[in-house]
Amino acid sequence: MNRPPAPFSAFRTVPRTGVIYVMTEPAKKGYHGGHSEWANLGIGAPETGSLPGAPERLESVSFNTEDHECAPAAGFDALRDAVADPFLLFAGAPCSDG
Fold first, then answer.
1. Its pTM surpasses 0.85
2. Are 76 and 96 in contact (CB under 8 A)?
3. pLDDT tens digits for range 17-57
4. How much of the chain is helix, strand and coil, in % rounded to 5?
5. Distance between CA atoms of residues 52 and 44, nearest Å
6. Phi and psi at residue 18, to the nearest 5°
């Protein structure tokens, strides 16, 4: 399906990537939303009902409207370290705590 771009076009042919790819490939094998034998384990919560023995699900969250501010562009150092340290540890690199 590699077609040459149309002459003088601002667009080019792009292969299916990311979400488009991971949704179209399972669809070829019968996946569709709500199918009882499939689960979408992608971004967000898996498609499932309540689970026996699991904590009750949150159905709403309230917060102060003053908390609508965006995080700093560079992020929060403590959060960045908490996310990066397991990867650094796995790679044998020094972590944020030395």
1. no
2. no
3. 777 888 888 889 988 888 888 877 766 655 567 778 888 87
4. 30, 0, 70
5. 20
6. 55, -135
C-alpha of 69 from chain center: 22
Please state, in angstroms and rounded to a whole number, the distance separating the CA atoms of residues 41 and 4: 35
Please list, in sequence order, all residues whose beta carbon lies within 8 angstroms of the beta carbon of residue 43, skipping any fewer than 6 positions away.
19
Tokens standing for residue 20:
């488009």
Asked if 30 contacts 36 with a C-beta cutoff of 8 angstroms, the reply is no
Q: What span, in angstroms and rounded, lies between the C-alpha atoms of 55 and 7?
A: 58
For residue 17, the 8-state DSSP code is -
Extract the tokens encoding 4.
């040459």
d(CA 17, CA 32): 19
Those residues whose C-beta lies under 8 Å from the C-beta of residue 4, and which sit 6 or more positions away, are 13
Beta-carbon contacts of 42 under 8 Å, excluding residues fewer than 6 positions away, are 19, 22, 23
